[in-house]
Amino acid sequence: MKTRKSGTRPRREHESRRRLGILILATWASLSIAWRAPAQANPPSEYTVKAAFLFHFAQFAEWPPNTFKDANAPLIFCTLGEDEFHGALDESISGKTIGNRPLRAEHLKLLQEVEGCQVVFVGVEDKKRIPALLASLKDAPVLTVGETEHFAQEGGMIGLFLEENKIRFEINLGSAERAKLKISAKLLALAKTVIGGSRGN
Amino acid sequence: MPERSQRPLNSASRTLFSSWRILILVALASHTVMGQTPETPQKDLTSTSIEDLMNMEVTSVSKKEQKLSQVAAAIFVIAQEDIRRSGATNIPDLLRMVPGLDVAQINGSTWAISARGFNLQFANKLLVLIDGRAVYSPLFGGVNWDTQDVPLEDIERIEVIRGPGGAVWGANAVNGVINIITKRSEETPGMLVTGGGGTQAQGFGTVQYGGKITGSTGYRIFTSYQNSNHFPDLNGQDAEDGWHLLHGGFRADTKLAQNDSLTTQGDVYTGSEGATIVHSTFFPPGNVNVEKLANLSGGNILGRWNHVFSSRCDTTLQFYFDEYHRDGPNATDVRDTIDFDFQNHLVLGARQDFIWGAGYRRDIDDTEGTVDGAFVPADSAKQFFSLFAQDQITLRPNRAYLYVGTKLQNSYFTGFDVQPSVHIAWTPSTHRTFWAGISRASRTPARRDVGLVATVAALPGPAEVVLLGNPNMKSEHVIAYEVGYRAQPTDRLSLDVTMFFNNYHDLESADQLPSFFDPNPVPPLLVHPTSFGNDLHGTTEGFEASVNWKATSRWTLSPGYSFLQMHLHGDSSDDATSVADAEGSNPRHQAQLRSHFELTHGFAWDANAYFVGRLPAQFVPSYTRLDTQFTWRLAERMELHLVGQNLLRDHHVEFNDQFQSVNSSQIKRSAYAKITWQF
Known about the structure:
The complex is a heterodimer. Chain A is an alpha/beta fold. Chain A contains six helices and ten strands. In chain A, the strands form two sheets. Chain A has an eight-stranded mixed β-sheet. Chain A starts with 12 loop residues before the first helix and ends in a 6-residue tail after the last strand. The relative contact order of chain A is 0.12. The N terminus of chain A is likely disordered. Chain B has eight helices and 37 strands. Chain B is mainly β. Chain B has a 22-stranded antiparallel β-barrel. Chain B has a five-stranded mixed β-sheet with strand order 1-8-9-4-5. In chain B, strands 2-3 form a two-stranded antiparallel sheet. Chains A and B meet through helix 1, helix 2, helix 3, strand 7 and strand 8 of A and helix 1, helix 2, strand 14, strand 24 and strand 35 of B.
């Protein structure tokens, strides 16, 4: 609670300039290292990881036999509305197979088209259409994956969410069972929560 | 559902807080992660096992902004990722990254932090909460930053709202609210050991263990220590302003039942700090610098119970008790605070999201005067009641939201204050949001404003200049008008711009009273009294802009700029000094550039530069501060950091306010090394 004023000491301009020079050099050097690093178009973003999750979900799910036309029919991953993956899903699954089935990604605009999909992903952007989607699918054998809050509680099969920046998921086993989809015990064990279903535990 | 600490910051941010999970999403860092080694195939992770995928941290530029898109307030979120990249060892230095916040270090352990002007050692228009516990001290009106210690690794995020938050947070959230939110205990399992030391932060470290008591109760317990070196004073002599703090704490989160959760947490700390203060003597009359060693100790315990009735209704009850003792350097103060807080959240129909609450706080203090200053009365006990309500109305789903809210609260010395606000957010397309708001907020008088008796200077004669509290102090008020725009034009670029115009009434002034002769002391004194009043009025305007640009997959650049102009005037001509002091203690321009490089082989390099304009009233020239950090990820859960701070100059002054109670020091260039190990 005192009144006191005082100037600062003279600054050593030369020294700061020299140091600034060194810093600029260091910046330049680091920049060149960074540029020369292996070119990677995208860092491992949330959606690259989510695309890999979709792949694994399909591996751990079993569709009823009459879902596919024949033993080599493709397994189709669909996104609805805006493609949240920005191409990452296509890149992750293209050229791969699960069993004998080649994998394919399709990006749908209309709800009616989802009947031909085996996996459908609905992003946050399209959360308004989730109730309509689930209603229109009824119990069709389509693995529904979402990332909105309460997706699984509201009848979706697998809801992705983030916890401490890591991806977690919950499974609505009741929904999957009604659609005659079998979900492996391993996936159920990894789920944060499992809702409904006829599981013993 | 929302913890108290996550209560909407103003009516506008209701959506953001509507649920836990959304909160987690909001908390996401805006950059790519250090979680993987750069050699990981980046576009295709299908060959990675699902277990490994679950252990991978993910972040994206888009998520944070998406979730913020409906928020009608100038919010900036510091995520854990930003904390790791900052190289900061304390919370004030961490806050430097927030565009529009003015963070200035006064001495080794004292900071002046404010938003949108009115910065002081006890900046009284900024409310700060740690996990829902208010750390705004009503003695001077402001935050004792020296005892606000949280292990930085445990912070989930820090939300900084610039602009009024009075409609939800109540009094003193006039120009901003800072919410420090720690991680839930299940998010910090295992051992965490950090340790380091250097030239300024001489030694610091944290040891923490997180585990489970039962299947439904997770906990963590930690102890941390830090010891900071002295800075030089303005004349280059040792300012004797070293500072050390030993801190222990815990947090436990229990799932009582499907719909009930309980959080219990607490801290205890002890430490001391040095400071140089000016002491007035009358034999002979003069003002001398004296070194003071202040002891600091305190603790708190907090419980928060959340019950979910249904997806459309939930409620939170929170209680905390906080006690601290400080014997300086400004005043000797022992304070107990008991706080109860209730809130209820209801979804009404298809379009309304309603939240209301009530609070009670009892605040008891016991001060001890010195020759240089005292409080009248020395002890006080006050209680406060508050009520708030706010409604988020969906005008068009996903497109337009209206937020209305108000808080009603009694204050220390004046009657009830009403702090209403109306905000609107319009999202014409997914990646663009316009928002606007009008709010009224108030700052209640602190104990100092009402009851201070301080000798400011001894003069020959003998005579003295005294500063006196004014029992008739009223609350300060602001009506704030804000508009903002947030956009994410591409995956790699996001920007946020806010403009504000604030109209203040009844701001605090220092008014000169007629001098008088006091025959009582020996020798008798001529007294020149100055007393606080509510004589200042005026406006401030400015804008804040920040950009986050992922220039390449490995390089993120975050520039920011803020501009502030203050036009204050007093009721009488002797307010000219108060006006000049208030106007000239805030930088007009502030700019910053943060750069983050993800290098190969687990290396990362951060460089953060901050420009702060001059403070004409304090004769503090503008300065640029440069901090840099090299991080080396030695193993999955072990990191080594090498940090340099204030690299551009050997030392500089950041704040030198005339009325602060501690002398300013020069902030020195410094370096330290730190290791973080989790297992």
